Amino acid sequence: MWFLLISIFICCSILKYFQKLNYWRSHGVKNISFIRLISNVLKRQMGVALGDIYQQLYEEKEPFKVALSPFLTVLILQDMESIKDVMIKQFENFPERGFYTNHRDPLNTNLIRLEYEWWRPLRQKLTPVFSPAKMQAIFPTLLKVTELFASKVKTTMEEEENGELAIYDLCARFTTDVVGSVAFGIEFNSLEDPNSQARRQGLKIFDYVWHPILDSLAGHYRAVKNFFNIKLFKPEISGFFRKLVSNIIEYRQKNGIRREDLMDTLIELKQHDERSKQEFALSLELIVGQVFGFFGAGFETSSNTLTYVLYELARHPEIQEKARENVKEVLKNHGNEFTYENIREMQYLKQVINETLRLHPPAPYTVRVCRQPCSLTTKRGSLKIPLGTKVMIPIYGIHHNPQYYPQPHLFRPERFDANMELGCKFPSCAYMPFGLGPRICIGERLAKMLLTLSLAMLLQRYRFSCCPATPKELHFDPRKMLVLSSKEKIVLKVETV
Ligand code: HEM
Ligand SMILES: *[C@@H]1O[C@H](CO)[C@@H](O)[C@H](O)[C@H]1NC(C)=O
Ligand SMILES: CC(=O)N[C@H]1CO[C@H](CO)[C@@H](O)[C@@H]1O
C-alpha cells in the first residue's frame, strides 16, 4: 500500500518536473542544475554562492535563471526591476518566505515565518513596538547594557595576554543581553556569566532539528507536515521560552510593573485584544513566538555586524581614527554624554556601519514565494510565474556588483558620503541589508541604534588593531545558511586610547 502510494508520488513528481522544464525553456529562461546548486551550497555559504550566480547572470544580461527539482522551483533574480516588483510593487503576490510553520508549535509562529493571513495583522500590531518613540524610551536601558559591555571588553582585554581577544564571543553576549533586556526585560546576564542558561538556550536557537535545506523544502509540504504535527524545535527549547515569557507577563501584571521596554507594549496589546475580543488576538502563544523570533532574527545578525565593523576598523586604522574623531567631536558638542539624539549625528560612523553592512551583509539573501500566479516584466518581455515558485533575492551579490560599487571588495565608507564626489551612485534598491518592502526587517531601528551606540562607546575608549592571529580575510561558514558567520575566530588587539 505504502509502496504503491510512494511510487505514484514519484511518478507524478517526475512528470511534473519535465512539464516544468518545458515551461521555463519555452519561455526562454535558462536553467542551472539544481544538484550543482545544492552541492555548491553545502560547500560555500548560501548567500555567497548565490552571489556568484547573480554576478554571472548580470554579465550575461539574463534577468533570471531557474533551478528545477521535482519538488521545488527556485528562481534566482538578477533584474533590478523584477526585484522591486517582487519585494515592493507586487508584494501581494509574493508575501511569504515559504518556511515551514506549524501552528501547534508556538516557536515557529513568528513574524519571519508566518503565512500572509497571519503575518499581516500581526505585523500591523507589532510595528508600533519598534517606533522611534519606543526606541527613545528604551535608550537608557540600552545605555546601561552598553556600559557593561564596554567595561567587560576592558576586563577581558586585561585578562588576555597582549590584550588580544576573540571579539565575536563578547559581541554575541552583548547582543544577547540587549535583545533580552532592552526588548523583553529578561535579564540574561550573559555578559557577566557566559554560561548562563539563557545564553545556552540562545545558542541553541539555530540548532535546527533538521538541516535548513529541509526546512525550506518543508514549506512546500505544509499539509503533510502539519498532519503529522512535526515540530521544528526541540520541546525543551519551546518549554524554556514559554515559561520565561509567561513568568514575566504574570509578574508584571500582578505587580503593575512597567519597564518601558518592548515587552510592555506586547502586554498592552494583549490586554487590549482580550478586552475588545479581536479576531487575531495577541495570545500568550503568539507573544512567545514573537520573543523567540526577535531573538533569532536579532542577536546573531547584530553581533556579526558589530564584529565585522571592528574587524574592518582594525584593518583600516586611518578610517578608525576618522570615526573616533567623529564620535569625539559630536560628544564634545553635547557635554560628553551619549543620548538618543546625538548618536544620530555621528555621520561618519553611520557611513562605516552602512559600508560594513554592504560588504558583509549578515543576512546575505532573502526569499519570497509566489502565492498567486502573476507576471514579471523585464526588458526581455513578460514572464508568467507559476504558483509556489521560490524566488531568491541575492543581497550579497547585489552588494558586490562592481557596476554599482566599484572595487566591491574594498572597505570604503566614502561610498556613502552624501556630499562628496566619491559617494557612489547606486540605484536606491541596490542597497538592502535589511531587505525591502512590507516585509523589511522590523528591527532595523533597534539594530542601528544598538550598533551606533556600542561602536561609539568602544571607539571613544579603545583602539582596535590587527595581530598575527587576525584572519587576513573572512570566510563564511556554509552550515549557517541564513547568516554570514565567520569560519575563523576574529582575534583583535585591544588597547585603551
Ligand atoms: C544588523 C542587524 C540586522 C540585519 C542586517 C537584519 C536583516 C534582516 C533582513 C535582511 C530581513 C529580511 C527582510 C526581507 O525579507 O525583505 C529581516 C527580517 C526580520 N528581522 Fe532583521 N535584521 C537585523 C536585526 C534585527 C533585530 C535587532 C530584530 C528584532 C529585535 C530583527 C527582527 C526581524 C524580524 C522580526 C524580521 C521578519 C520581518 C517580517 O517578515 O515581517 N532584526 N532582518
Ligand atoms: C545608510 O543607508 C541607509 C539605507 O539603508 C540610508 O538611508 C542612509 O542615508 C545611509 N546613511 C549614511 C550615513 O550614509
Ligand atoms: C535539467 C537540466 O539541468 N537541464 C539543463 C540545464 O542546463 C544545462 C546547461 O547549463 C544543461 O546541460 C541541462 O541539460
From TrEMBL:
CDD domains given in the database record: CYP6-like
Topology versus the membrane: Peripheral membrane protein
Positions annotated to bind heme: 441
Cofactor: heme
Signal peptide stretch: 1-18
Keyword set, alphabetical order: Endoplasmic reticulum, Heme, Iron, Membrane, Metal-binding, Microsome, Monooxygenase, Oxidoreductase, Signal
GO cellular component: a single term: endoplasmic reticulum membrane
Recorded GO MF terms: heme binding; iron ion binding; monooxygenase activity; oxidoreductase activity, acting on paired donors, with incorporation or reduction of molecular oxygen
Gene3D superfamilies from the UniProt entry: Cytochrome P450
InterPro entries: Cyt_P450, Cyt_P450_CS, Cyt_P450_E_grp-I, Cyt_P450_sf, Insect_CytP450_Detox
Subcellular location: Endoplasmic reticulum membrane; Microsome membrane
Superkingdom of source: Eukaryota
Family in the record: Belongs to the cytochrome P450 family.
Protein name (Swiss-Prot/TrEMBL): Probable cytochrome P450 6a14
Biological source species: Musca domestica (House fly)
UniProt gene name: LOC101893767
